[in-house]
């Protein structure tokens, strides 16, 4: 079978191929059947394109170029993320899913990759007394002393796809988990991302920040390899709620309608764009019932 190159005008250069870091298969970019050039969905870098390829063995996606990530994170729009109505709805959804797995307010919880600690603060507000956050890139939460402890519950939302070594990252989470503890990993699902329609998946692909996007089968395998039991997989993004405009379908369509950059999610809302578009208005109210499938949240028990 021949390689699918989604943008024929672009050529793929320089493959210092190392194989798949997730399944260990010797598949390389040079042999990949599905390769695509994907532009960044951050405004400042929108003119730059990155090579994404799929491992034929485990179906995961890899971002190929070695980039200076510091340069990209320096202008990362989500540094401006603040608590607002939509975030609160989404966090309520995260908490609902945790409670379904018997998490209670006396549990010792770690949010690994907590950013500026919004979810940590949210859990404190909800009566959780024993919540810690860790994020190497946030000054307030970068104290590694936190990582000498063990936790009943570890949550890590939108993190594993950002790291260069997802396998060792996963194992380090498992090491922090107390016996019987719950590990929650929320991340895009490579199996559901169709690279030939990359425009529809620019949020999940999020180049060049998402280094390796796991397939569900590889995430399950990581769990098994670490001796964990997979209890449940939620096949939605936690942003999916029934509140008007707080659903993933609406968010993705809104981003596309406003120029396909994710910056708009943390900027002043543009209600005019929504009211002029019957499609956006429809999804503001009913988007929950047409969820994009490009995300997963897995719950593992140690
Ligand atoms: Zn693989």
Describe this structure in words.
The protein folds into 2 domains: 4-71, no CATH class; 77-240 and 289-301, Vaccinia Virus protein VP39 (Rossmann fold, 3-Layer(aba) Sandwich), CATH 3.40.50. Helices cover 25% and strands 20% of the residues. The protein has 9 helices and 11 strands. It has helices at residues 69-73, 85-100, 118-125, 166-175, 202-205, 216-225, 248-257, 271-275, 278-286, and strands at residues 4-5, 34-39, 49-54, 61-63, 109-112, 131-134, 151-157, 177-188, 212-213, 229-234, 295-301. It has a 6-stranded mixed sheet with strand order 6-5-7-8-11-10, with helices on both faces. The protein has a 5-stranded mixed sheet with strand order 1-2-3-4-9. The model is unreliable at 1-15 (pLDDT under 50). The site of zinc ion (ZN) has 8 residues, from loops.
């Amino acid at each position: 079978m021949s390689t699918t190159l989604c943008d024929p005008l672009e050529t793929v250069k320089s493959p210092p191929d190392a194989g798949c870091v997730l399944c260990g298969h010797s598949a390389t970019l040079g042999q990949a059947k599905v390769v695509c050039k994907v532009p960044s969905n951050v405004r400042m870098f929108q003119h730059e394109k990155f090579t994404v390829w799929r491992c034929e063995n485990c179906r995961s996606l890899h971002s190929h170029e070695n980039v200076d990530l510091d340069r990209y994170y320096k202008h990362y729009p989500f540094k401006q993320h603040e608590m607002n109505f939509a975030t609160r709805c989404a966090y309520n959804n995260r908490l609902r899913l945790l409670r379904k797995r018997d998490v209670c307010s006396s549990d010792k919880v770690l949010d690994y990759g907590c950013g500026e600690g919004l979810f940590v603060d949210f859990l404190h507000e909800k009566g959780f007394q024993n919540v810690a956050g860790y994020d190497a890139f946030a000054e307030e939460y970068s104290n590694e002393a936190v990582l000498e402890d063990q936790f009943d519950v570890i949550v890590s939302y939108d993190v594993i796809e950002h790291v260069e070594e997802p396998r060792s990252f996963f194992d380090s989470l498992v090491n922090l988990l107390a016996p019987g503890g719950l590990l929650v990993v929320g991340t895009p699902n490579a199996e559901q991302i169709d690279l030939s329609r990359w425009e529809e998946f620019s949020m999940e692909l999020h180049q060049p920040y998402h280094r390796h996007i796991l397939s569900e089968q590889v995430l399950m395998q990581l769990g098994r390899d670490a001796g964990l039991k997979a209890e449940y997989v939620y096949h939605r993004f936690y942003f999916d709620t029934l509140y008007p405009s707080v659903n993933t379908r609406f968010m993705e369509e809104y981003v596309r309608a406003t120029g396909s950059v994710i910056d708009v999610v943390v900027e002043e809302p543009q209600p005019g764009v929504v009211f002029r578009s019957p499609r956006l208005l429809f999804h503001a109210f009913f988007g929950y019932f047409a969820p994009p499938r490009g995300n997963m949240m897995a719950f593992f028990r140690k």
